[in-house]
Amino acid sequence: MTVSRGLAGTAIVLLAAMLLAGTSVSAVVSYGGGANPSAVMLIRFMGAIVVLFVILRASGAKIMLPPRARAMAFALGIAQAAQSYFLYNSLAHIPVGLTMIIFYIYPLLVGLFASVVGQDRLTWMLGGGLVTAFLGLLLVFNVTGDGFNPIGAWYAVFTALSWSLVVVGNSWLTRGGDSRPVTFHIQISALVIVAVYLAFTGDVKLPATRQSWIGYFLIPVFYGVGVTLFFVAASMIGPVRTSMIMNFEPVSAVVLGYLVLEQTLTPFQLAGGALVISALCVAHIRKKT
Predict the structure, then answer these.
(1) 166 near 73, Cβ under 8 Å?
(2) Tens digits of per-residue pLDDT, 70-110?
């Protein structure tokens, strides 16, 4: 991997982290006007498909996949839909901070899964960076034992597991090539699964205020572009390193929460953010082995 490719991949994944953090903040804004998680899931996948289609058409890239790759991408869509389901159910049982802390074991899981299938090697230096980033997240969210619920915690664990499968599976199918068609098919499959689920439950509540509608429509834009950039970066610098750098996402969410939602940053959160950024530096300067 050349230095320029590594720097470009790092910059792309940092941008993806900020955009996906924007998705979470936009969801909170839409919740304030009456929207519910089911509505957010629906618009998120619908928007991602539209954004990806426009990007693929504008760039002249191929949209269709070979039959075998298409079938595997559709299978990964099951894990993508499950990730959304587990995430929003976790948020219904435990505080957001605790959900995010548990969910962010996924970079470690990606490293383990990728090493098992031979995609990447989890070196001691990178492993140390991952652990440091995880400890930083504990401070970023300043989580205590209050509000702990085992059901919600297990939902968060399943969120991390399902997303790890999507990340490793996408990278395996892409093999360093264009990840966008694979991501496009994954989103289609996830949307179909979510739509069928919602057709049976009928649990969709749309926003009722102008501000919440703005937040609602920003969700697919931020998510569609963010998830596309995430997998582009993974094809450039590998799924393990990409997932580790994505620890910048919750830090971005804290900053955006302060700027947009007027949430206060505590000294513990600032110290945690410093730890996460330090971990990013460790991952960036690690030597190739």
Answers:
(1) no
(2) 999 999 999 999 998 898 778 667 766 677 777 877 877 77
What pLDDT digit, counting tens, does each position of 113-144 carry?
777 766 666 677 767 777 777 777 777 666 65
94 contacts 156 by C-beta, under 8 angstroms: yes
Q: What pLDDT does 126 receive? A: 67
- Among all chains, which residue has been given the structure tokens 């997240």? 137
Instruction: Give the span between the Cα atoms of 5 and 238, in whole angstroms.
Output: 11
Residue 15's contacts (CB-CB under 8 Å, 6 or more residues apart) are 226, 229
Q: 133 phi and psi, to 5 degrees?
A: -60, -40
Report which of 7, 20, 10, 37 is spatially closest to residue 228, judged by C-alpha positions.
Answer: 20
Residues with Cβ within 8 Å of residue 83, at least 6 apart in sequence: 159, 162, 163, 166
- Give dist(CA 2, CA 258) in Å, integer: 37
